[in-house]
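Objective 1b. Sequence-to-structure analysis of Murein L,D-transpeptidase.
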Amino acid sequence: MLANALRAIALTLAVVALAGCAFIGDNRGNVPISKELVDRMAQIGSSPSEPMMIRVFKESSELEVWKRTRSGQFALLKTYPICKWSGTLGPKIKEGDYQSPEGFYDVTPALLNPKSSYHLSFNVGFPNKFDAALNRTGSYLMIHGDCLSVGCFAMTDEGIKEIYAMVRDSFRGSNASVQLQLLPFRMTEENFARHASSPHVAFWRDLRVGTDAFDQTKQLPSWDVCQQRYVFNLNDPRTAPLDPNGACPMASYSTMAAL
């Protein structure tokens, strides 16, 4: 009898403990950045609350995290292997083409998903202004955990834990967005020569204007769309955004003609 009573008490305590865990809820999205990463940020003169930028290179399956430093410029913090992306080099065109997107995107706090089926995730923001101007379609395109991709960038659970936490803490530092540069490859002339026969070369050269601006200044380029093309550092924040289907400002013609 005593043994039965003790088992009953133990079972009751276990149920209470489980209920307590359930009450606390799923805390995946609030796991802090590791001390190792915080220390690495300090080494480059940055911190979790500083702005960040993410660069993805499909061909080499790499994701870079850049952080703004005390100098006001961005520095490379860490490079992660991409476990899986889908499709080929080139932009996403339509829903169901199993293509991971390319272009410039802005992740906002509303795009974070702490309860993702792929551990943690954030939406890249496809379709953006450029995609919409070309009537491109697609939805739920993410950077997430696990190693499965249907148009997304899968980083493994361990990888996304760090990346998600850094994006989250950047937002907690009152930063409105995190810029994503989703690229086919490192934008060198050698790589353009290797892919010279691609139908996407003109699109990629437009993207290169933005990546070159960042590489030269280590400052985030502002991007907009006119004449159904990406343009960079042209739009005056005091004026209305550019018309994605309208003519580009005169200042852009010399840049575009040089491509």
